[in-house]
Write a structure and sequence with these properties.
Elements (H helix, E strand, L loop, with lengths): L2 H13 L13 H4 L1 E4 L2 E4 L7 H13 L2 H9 L26 E2 L2 E2 L1 H20 L3 E2 L2 E2 L2 E5 L6 H9 L8 E5 L4 H9 L6 E6 L6 H15 L9 E5 L2 H6 L7 E3 L16 H7 L1 H20 L6 H15 L4 E7 L6 H13 L17 E3 L11 H6 L6 E6 L8 H20 L3 H10 L4 H10 L8 E6 L4 H22 L10 H14 L9 H10 L2
Parallel strand pairs: 7-8, 7-9, 9-10, 10-11, 12-13, 12-14, 14-15
Antiparallel strand pairs: 1-2, 2-15, 3-4, 5-6
Helix pairs in contact: 1-3, 3-12, 6-10, 6-13, 10-11, 11-18, 12-18, 13-18, 16-17
Bound molecules: 6-O-phosphono-beta-D-fructofuranose.
The site of 6-O-phosphono-beta-D-fructofuranose has 14 residues, from loops.
């Protein structure tokens, strides 16, 4: 255990029993432990972080080389060194003047060219210039998985008030139930299928793409004309039969889980139009500028990362709940699961040694207020502490339902307050006394009504869930994951941990079809025997 971690752990032990609420006795805590980025604000004052903790964490970021790695990433260096790739998703949202070099080549002209082609295609689809066999496209089906699904699906749902194009649907799971249910209500003659796959080899996506083509072929003479593709593999999209005019390429320096900003966002662009998509990119860009220029002590992604490191690696809280009080962000937790867990769920440091700490946390969540009626019981009274990340907009998109928005906001604030304050045994006794309980029964009942409190949370507030604000939020989390990865000393941009299962699944396919199972362990053998049809 290196000194930097040990000092933080010792400090955490020394403050562990201190009530968070007591930190508010010092005036101005909420302001001192909040940070603004544009109109968004992150309040991390309801944590056990004090000035000393903050200073130690900021030093941790500095000595871990966050600034140097940040410059290397934006500068096109091959920081994804287990795959020998640069990491330049930020170039996808860079401004019109930007030049971004990797391997001595400015990547921006190609990015702009592809974006312009996407915008032309999008306008043609939306205006009816591009038609299906049955006329104007009414529905778009995006077939992809992981980063080729979670990002665009989450963004499409989040920006529902901005939809003015065809209906957009997503198919990801290899389970035939998914594609059947989606295609059931659609007319093949007015449907456009986008096959979204960085590699164009992912078995789930290619299988679903074949299924969609067969479905379309029953009604449409030349289905390939109603297919578009988004990929880095132009040879493979051509082999699948998709005309190059409807193929939108990108380079291998865009990781799947970071790819929504470019061609993988085509379905989003079709739903909201190229202008609103530009606003989304501008939001991401604004967060990039903030991340690049603000000192660490006022840098939202850096501070959010440090809060994460404090709770997980220092205090030992193994999971983190993301709780958007924004129904349209209901897919955000799933999106963040890939972003955070595929990026930082690793045990080996860049140099091949074992990580000296735990890897990134388990990330999970659901929108409020739904979660309150499901798992908040454990968050409030369970034996493990789950740091919570709340988020809520000042305004909703439904002016007629402002009273409902008020209820939403009050619930969000109430939860973080309840987690921090808790309810003491004496308070619980008073409640039970009022209800008429006495003696042992009063004592027993009161204990069930105690909330330990002192449970940390952060709250991200923003004006309204617009394309710009959503862009800010996603880029905030991307950079948070990056900073945490640098501090942990791992490579946030590879994903070797998904490979073994893929290999074994390929080998199991023929075994399930009747092949020799004897090389498998006893459990797998027995399960294969049960599941064989
Ligand atoms: O298996 C994991 C993964 O490689 C993700 O990283 C990626 O987002 C997903 O599969 C889909 O990959 P592709 O876009 O190449 O189909």
């Amino acid at each position: 255990m290196s000194e930097k971690w040990q000092a933080l752990r010792d400090h955490a032990t020394s403050v562990a029993r201190r009530p968070i609420v007591s930190l508010f006795e010092a005036p101005g805590r909420a302001q001192a432990f909040s940070v603004d980025a544009g109109a968004a604000r992150l309040d991390y004052s309801k944590t056990n972080i004090d000035e000393q903790t903050k200073a130690m964490l900021l030093t941790l970021a500095e000595v871990s080389g966050v600034a140097e790695k940040r410059a290397a990433m934006f500068g096109g260096e091959k920081i994804n060194d287990t795959e020998g790739r640069a990491v330049l998703h930020t170039a996808l949202r860079a401004g019109i003047e930007a030049k971004v070099f990797t391997d001595g080549v400015d990547v921006m002209p190609e990015i702009r060219k592809t974006k312009a082609r996407m915008a032309i295609f999008t306008r043609e689809v939306r205006t009816g210039k591009f038609v299906g066999q049955g006329g104007k496209i009414t529905d778009v089906v995006n077939i992809g998985i992981g980063g080729s699904d979670l990002g665009p699906a989450m963004v499409t749902l989040a920006l529902a008030p901005f939809h003015d194009g065809p209906r957009v649907h997503y198919v990801s799971n290899v389970d035939g139930a998914h594609i059947s249910d989606v295609l059931k209500g659609l007319n093949p003659e007015t449907t456009l299928v986008i096959v979204a796959s960085k590699t164009f080899t992912t078995i789930e996506t290619m299988t679903n793409a074949e299924t969609a083509r067969a479905w379309m072929a029953k009604k449409v003479t030349t289905p390939a004309k109603q297919f578009a593709a988004v990929s880095t593999a132009a040879d493979k999209t051509a082999a699948f039969g998709i005309d190059s005019t409807r193929v939108f390429g990108f380079e291998d320096w865009v990781g799947g889980r970071y790819s929504v900003w470019g061609p993988i966002g085509l379905a989003v662009m079709l739903a909201i139009g190229p202008e609103a998509f530009e606003d989304f990119l501008a939001g991401g860009r604004a967060m990039d500028d903030h991340f690049l220029t603000e000192p660490f002590a006022q840098n939202m992604p850096v501070l959010l990362a440090l809060v994460g490191i404090w709770h997980n690696q220092v205090c030992g809280h193994a999971s983190r709940a993301v709780l958007p009080y924004d129904q349209r962000l209901s897919r955000l937790p799933a999106y963040l699961q890939q972003l955070e867990m595929e990026s930082n769920g690793k045990s080996v440091a860049m140099d091949g040694s074992d990580l000296p700490t735990h890897s990134g946390p388990v990330v999970w969540g659901e929108p409020g207020t739904n979660g309150q009626h499901a798992f908040y019981q454990l968050i409030h009274q369970g034996t493990r502490v789950v740091p919570c990340e709340f988020m809520v907009a000042k305004q909703g998109h439904e002016p007629d339902l402002a009273h409902q928005h008020l209820l939403l906001v009050s619930n969000c604030l109430a939860q973080s307050e309840a987690l921090m304050r808790g309810r003491s045994l004496n308070e619980a006794r008073a409640i039970m006394q009022k209800k008429g309980a006495v003696g042992d029964e009063l004592e027993r009942q009161a204990r069930h009504r105690v909330f330990p409190g002192n449970r940390p949370s952060t709250t991200l507030v923003y004006p309204k869930l617009t394309p710009f604000v959503l862009g800010q939020i996603i880029a905030l989390y991307e950079h948070r994951v990056f900073v945490e990865g640098v501090i942990l000393g791992l490579n946030s941009f590879d994903q070797w941990g998904v490979e073994l299962g893929k290999e074994l699944a390929l080998a199991l396919q023929p075994i399930l079809e009747g092949g020799d199972v004897s090389g498998k362990d006893g459990s797998t053998q027995a399960l294969v025997e049960y599941l064989r049809v």
